[in-house]
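SAMPLE LOG
Freezer: B-3
Tube label: C17
Construct: single chain, 524 aa
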Amino acid sequence: MSISRRRFLQSLAASFLGGGGPLATAAAASETPSSRREAAARLAEAALSAARSAGAGYADLRVLFSESELLSAREERIENVEVSTSSGLGVRVLVNGVWGFSSASVLDPAHASHCARSAVEMAKANRPLATRPVEIERVEPKVDRWLVPIEQDPFAVPLDRKAEQLLGINAEAKAAGASFAHSFFLFVRQEKFFASSAGSFLEQLFFRTYPRLTVTATDPASGRFANRSSFFPPRAAGYEYIRSQDWQREARQAAEDAQRKLKAKPVAAGRLDLVLHPTNLWLTLHETVGHSTELDRAFGYEAGFAGTTFVTPADRGRLPFASELVTVMADRDQPGGLATAAYDDDGMPARYARFPILSHGRFENFQMAIGQSQWIGLPHSNACSFAEGHAYFPIQRMPNISLQPSEQDISVEELISGVDEGVYVVGDGSWSIDQQRRNFQFGGQLFYEIRKGKLGEMLRDVAYQGTTVPFWNACDGIGGAKEYWLGGTLSCGKGQPVQSAPVSHGVVPARFRGITVLNTGREA
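STRUCTURE (predicted):
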């Protein structure tokens, strides 16, 4: 039986809130449901009704339709074409302060009801293991639809056109002297529906586009080789993102850089000043600031897989995490941001996700999912929840997290001019960090010596090492807004079972004094 959004919300509000006036009004003003929207409403009615009947005090449902396409090319041949689709639902319930969860890949009301009852049974079974009751804040019910703004649907572009472009990129790199060239385009489309017993019914449509080129130069005489990858990060965008890049220029530059790396001189290890380009610093920000300020880590819930954190709840408003120049903001509204959304996977509005993590160097706020704010006495979470797919329980995940530019118009050249002896690092490379996000080591792609305020020769075998708080307190220069660059990853890992999450990091170049630089070739 077909059900409209209006009828769904009226019945939902009557069941859980005791009335449906404002919700019914919002539903009446909404668009006519599409077939998927209508199906999601039917599933929500079945799941939430079954959850209530089985004894849940709160329940929510996620219905996901996902599509991905990957094309990869090596030199002059198309190496791989993968097209996949998936769909399913997940039901989360709260029973007497304990979470339960169940999922299914069959989208019909009977399976939705069964999942709801299974989730309630799981919550009851988990009760003896619960160390503290879950208390969730009241979330204002919303009926809304939101989508990532794009100009061209990547899935509507013919495969042969994409393949031709990939082969052209490789040919350009080979013509410029690369020994090998590997490129790919990855596209993701995800339609996500969320419905809760609080009365929300949300629809969000996401597009993510990731182009990548990696070239390799070799030296037959020595047997050495060097790589250089493109600096175009994944974005929440359509095919226009690929069209907007100068791939011929990037391919030529990558090939030339890789050849120059073969002839670069080894770095002299020691304590040196660093100027980090945004293409390198985004990853350092992600690992040292992003992950260390997740509240679930501070309470030990991530200890089994990716470690905890050195940051404690007592540090809020007190810890001098970085120098006064450093302000780091969270958001879900940055154009092109991979974590940009109108709502997180708890149904929390994006406005809650705009908050300072570090303010003028001082640690201010943890990232939180629903039910976590009461751990530290706060009234509500800050829209930091995400589930990789329908079969995953939503956990606390990063929104977009960005280093704020200086108020002054400071260029990367000005930062370099203030260094007597140091290294300029471009691009991300290998990295490692300890289980408390305290001690780390990062590499890069391109390295240049700095002598008396000027760039010198290219270097190789460079890695920098440090401890999170002293490192960020050693920052004495931040680039201006003109230097701002949005990096990020589609596959930030966390959780058991492990989940991948997309997240972006806006960054400007920054200067750090007296950092330990290693010669990785000599160490090896």
